[in-house]
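Let's practice the habit of predicting before peeking. Look at the sequence and jot down your guess about where helices and strands might fall. Then scroll down.
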Amino acid sequence: MKKYLAELIGTMVLVLMGCGSAIFNHGVGTTAQVLTVAFGFGLSVVAMAYTIGGVSGCHINPAITFGAFLSKRISGKDAGMYMLFQVIGAILGSLILYIIVSNIDTTGASYIAQGGDFATKTGANGTQPGVSMLGGLIAEIVFTFVFVLVVLGTTDSKKGAGSFAGLAIGLSLVLVHIVCIPLTGTSVNPARSIGPAIFEAVYGNTGALSQLWIFIAGPLVGGALASVAWKAVVTEQ
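Done guessing? Here is the structure:
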């Protein structure tokens, strides 16, 4: 049970810090905002990797768990429980952000002077202007593939990066966000998308829920492909 709770806490922190960086920096319209959000997610993974990695492996992402399951690093039971607790953690992280945002006066003069209302209140994912749903799906598959491949490679028991794995994984997530934010806002993590989409609907906006399938299917396919690729790389001839 402890490893499941670790996954819940880790995913909650990821959503709280990552999506929070998008909310409280008024979106990702500028280069500085993109970098801020990218590092918000990446540093969250680094922090949690060295905090709960020894307990659960710090997946905090169903796509990673799926890739690990297909790579036979985790049992089916644990994989299912990891995913369940990751989603619960993401919802809790989004709930905390919802409570904070709901208690900020966005009409005050000092707040308006800092940029006015939030560009996003939840950090929910969605295809950006000009990006088709197919384009968004492809982006999520490709960038999740890259991210999960890094995870599988750096945490490999024989060929991995050892104690540097957490740093490598966190920095790779920063890299993925820098490139993918202008396309989909970057998910590469179904749980990270589910929580904010639910609270986006609470605010009366159902767009994120209508596109949620992209951010569930894309990362899971990407994680599966990463597992196949890593097996091909490490299989002895």
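How did you do? The two ends are 39 Å apart (CA to CA).
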